[in-house]
Amino acid sequence: MADGTQAEVDRREDDLLLTEETVGQQPVRAIECPPNFQQTLRRMPPSVARGTITVLGRLAAGEPAAFMGAIRLKACPDILRRRVGIDFRLLFRLLSDRVQVVDLIPRQDLERRIKTLVGESRKLEAGRSQKSEYRSQKLGMVRSRHSPACQPTKLGGLAGEPYRFGRSARRSDPTQDKPVGGGTGCDEKTSQNPRLIFQTV
């Protein structure tokens, strides 16, 4: 009965994994642990903590035998699972320059932990999509500011004549246009000291 139960547990765990890959020559990598990993090791039996550090050292050294049994998760293909003893599982990412530890958990918590990782991955992806959309909108606003429709168009050939914004601005008599500061047009002082007057049409 115990053997049947163990076989069922093994089968359920195998269903969470992809097919094991053939590992070739591996480079030397650094080891990156999460901030709380030391506390995680302290909660483990001493033999499991020592075994975990040994496995990580062998993985980081690029020892081919250390990658035997390191299999990617179906739900999170960037994460690998490695057995530590019979009852514990090491989850990690294998990056180009480092072994990134994700977690060390009891075997029975593997399925629940995978669900958590999937949720975290979706939240991260959603955050990236929102940032990308925000950048696109911001870039569109910047481009619209520099479009020809937003460039000042001079309505005359003499200095002191007012400018208007707009691509299709029409020519008008400066004396009929009210300056931005008020009044009915360009006064004598303005004519003697030409300056640019911006007015929105």
- The radius of gyration over CA amounts to 34 Å
Distance between the terminal alpha carbons, to the nearest Å? 87 Å
SSE sequence, one letter per element = HEHHEEEEHEEHE
How would you characterize the largest beta sheet? 5 strands, mixed
- What's the number of helices? 5
The backbone outline, from C-alpha atoms, is elongated
Q: What is the CATH topology classification name of the largest domain? A: YaeB-like fold
How many discrete domains? Answer: 2
CATH architectural grouping of the largest domain = 2-Layer Sandwich
Percentage beta strand: 15-25%
Describe the strand arrangement of the main beta sheet, using strand numbers: 1-5-4-3-2
Tell me the name of the CATH class of the largest domain.
Alpha Beta
Concise summary:
This protein has 201 residues and is α/β, with parallel strands linked by helices. It has helices at 2-15, 37-43, 46-61, 110-145, 188-192, and strands spanning 30-32, 71-72, 80-84, 88-94, 98-106, 152-154, 163-165, 198-199.
Task: Describe this entry's structure for a reader.
With 201 residues, this protein is an alpha/beta fold. It has 2 domains: 2-121, RelE-like (YaeB-like fold); 148-199, no CATH class. The protein contains 5 helices and 8 strands. The chain has helices spanning 2-15, 37-43, 46-61, 110-145, 188-192; strands at 30-32, 71-72, 80-84, 88-94, 98-106, 152-154, 163-165, 198-199. The strands form 2 sheets. A 5-stranded mixed sheet has the order 1-5-4-3-2. The chain has a 3-stranded mixed sheet with strand order 6-7-8, with no helix packed on it. Strand 6 (152-154) and strand 7 form a beta hairpin. The chain starts with a helix and ends with a strand.
